[in-house]
Design goal:
Elements (H helix, E strand, L loop, with lengths): L11 H54 L6 H18 L3 E5 L2 E5 L3 E6 L13 E5 L11 H4 L3 E2 L19 E13 L4 E10 L9 E7 L13 E4 L6 E6 L11 E7 L5 E6 L7 H4 L1 H18 L1 H47 L7 H30 L7 E4 H11 L1 H6 L3 E4 L5 E4 L1 H18 L5 E6 L3 E7 L18 H5 L6 H11 L3 E7 L2 E7 L1
Parallel strand pairs: 4-7, 14-16
Antiparallel strand pairs: 1-2, 1-12, 3-4, 3-10, 5-6, 6-7, 6-9, 6-10, 7-8, 11-12, 13-15, 16-17, 17-19, 18-19
Length: about 525
């Protein structure tokens, strides 16, 4: 047989932790679904973008090599495309033409030169020049220059997804070349003076104060075939350093592609596999923000179900405690007169003290009357609790109701030597006379039971409120607790009070739309009814 356990007092912290676990599990599932869906979409998009980038660079290579006469400018143009492709994707390329390597993705300087066209005045023709010798790179690999670098090792698709991993990450440095030697036929140049640009700035404001000057002997045989060009003012021509730098190791390259162009010349390339960055690394910041957001939502959202569950458990616990206390109080209050009745009945049955037969009978009658009064009080309280009482409002003279209540308790007032100070007031309100009279009668009776013997009970009434005040026979620490069912003072227990007087009075007054306040001011116990 299942035994019903005791309802324990709820803890808000325990309820919160329980809800926290449930909400965390729920939001974790939601977060996992978001992550899986996003990573799957990213995988598909990244795969498409990889194919697109490979196709793009292949087309660029083939377009430059599928011709009869491949010039140095064509090779320089391919070099530019390879550097841009590497900077965007991290994929290395080596390009071959007529069975010879003609370009790769190496760390280099590409200068963009656009002089006026000789054949079409007013227009400019764009040339690309490749650094003539790698030895000039050392002038650009100083801390003063590298502080302006912009690291761009990966490319982003239209949705912001990272396509490739950081592969031999190298900076891109923008230059403004103001003096150089150029070899148009071979598409090479030797820098003489360059201003370093700040890639974070805009327009001409991006030109820094850092200038790189390379000592070049104008009479050097290296300059044979080169033409010196100088730009004055702010009409700078741009150049950039980018690509990868490292050992020229064939093992770094995988895959080959050789073909014969329309003019029966071999061309092709070798390239590394294009690696795209894992989703968790590409969106590391976004994933961290999502996790922090879900954590904050878990902590915050958990309070809502916690409040609901805690309040429900609290109500259940209060009902349980309320019933337990009521049951204990009822059993205790009924046990005493029942024990007395049993004793007197046994005396009658055993003919004990035959000369006290009438005394025993009167005591039994008295105890039965007390028990009947308690039961009636419980029934009145129960009806008020269930709101099953019908309210019939009529015009009631509450001053007269107070006077009648005082008169009904005259016996108790006289027995305890009390004096009642009350000037009858003529105040009429629309209310239920029976419910109102019962509430007032209980309050006056409580005052008579709890008042200190020989003291004065003050009663005052006007159109807004009723005040009943008495000097307490005992200290009242928590006056509002006296409104709870079966709350009693020792004086009431001596007089066999039911402990339901204030509770019934409050129920009745609430039904009538009034408010009952009780408080203890020193040794004064004050009851206020707000009409």
């Amino acid at each position: 047989m299942k035994v019903r356990g005791k309802i324990k007092k709820p803890s808000f912290i325990i309820s919160y932790l329980e809800c926290l676990v449930v909400v965390a599990a729920l939001l974790s599932c939601i977060g996992t679904l978001i992550y899986n869906n996003a990573s799957w979409e990213y995988y598909n998009d990244a795969s498409k973008m990889i194919d697109w980038h490979v196709q793009r660079v292949d087309n660029a290579i083939f377009a430059g090599l599928n011709k009869k006469d491949v010039t140095a400018q064509d090779i320089a143009d391919i070099k530019v495309k390879l550097l841009n492709h590497y900077t965007s994707t991290g994929q290395r390329y080596k390009v071959y033409y007529n069975k010879k390597e003609v370009a790769d993705s190496s760390w280099n300087i590409i200068m963009h030169y656009a002089p006026d066209s000789d054949t079409d005045p007013g227009t400019k023709r764009l040339y690309y020049f490749v650094l003539a010798d790698a030895k000039y790179m050392k002038y650009f690999e100083t801390p003063e220059v590298l502080q302006y670098k912009a690291v761009v090792p990966v490319i982003y698709d239209s949705d912001g997804a990272v396509i490739t991993a950081k592969f031999d990450e190298k900076p891109v440095i923008e230059l403004a070349v103001t003096e150089a030697y150029i070899d148009i036929e071979n598409a090479k140049f030797i820098p003489v003076s360059c201003h370093i640009c700040d890639t974070k700035a805009v327009g001409m404001d991006g030109i820094s104060n850092v200038v790189v000057n390379i000592p070049i002997d104008k009479d050097s045989p290296e300059l044979k075939g080169y033409t010196r060009i100088v730009w004055n003012g702010v009409d700078y021509f741009s150049a950039s350093i980018e690509g990868f730098q490292g050992a020229d190791d064939e093992a770094d390259y995988t895959g080959t592609s050789f073909a014969i162009n329309d003019y029966n010349v071999n061309f092709g390339d070798k390239n590394t596999e294009l690696i795209y960055m894992p989703f968790s690394e590409a969106y590391k910041t976004q994933i961290m923000i999502l996790c922090c957001t879900l954590a904050a939502m878990t902590i915050t959202i958990s309070f809502m179900p916690t409040a609901f569950i805690y309040n429900r458990k609290k109500r259940n616990y209060e009902v349980f405690e309320y019933r337990r206390k009521m049951t204990d109080a009822m059993a205790h209050d009924l046990k005493t007169p029942m024990a007395a009745i049993l004793t007197y009945a046994e005396n009658l049955e055993n003919h004990t003290g035959e000369n006290k037969q009438e005394f025993y009978i009167s005591k039994i009658s008295e105890k039965v009357w007390q028990m009947n009064k308690m039961v009636n009080s419980m029934l009145d309280f129960s009806r008020g609790e269930n709101e099953s009482v019908t309210v019939n409002k009529t015009a009631v003279d509450i001053g007269a109701v107070l006077a009648d209540a005082i008169a009904e308790n005259e016996h108790e007032i006289t027995k305890r030597g009390l004096t009642v100070s009350y000037e009858k007031a003529e105040v009429t309100v629309s209310t239920d006379k029976d419910l109102f009279a019962q509430a007032i009668g209980n309050l006056i009776n409580n005052a008579a039971l709890y008042a200190k013997e020989g003291s004065t009970v003050l009663v005052a009434c006007d159109s807004g409120k009723i005040i009943i005040s008495n000097v307490s026979a005992e200290a009242v620490e928590d006056a509002s607790a006296m409104k709870q069912p079966f709350a009693k003072g020792s004086e009431s227990r001596k007089n066999m009070g039911s402990g339901l007087g204030l509770a019934i009075a409050e129920n009745n007054l609430v039904l009538l739309g009034y408010k009952l306040d009780v408080k203890s001011e020193g040794d004064n116990f004050v009851v206020t009814i707000t009409l």
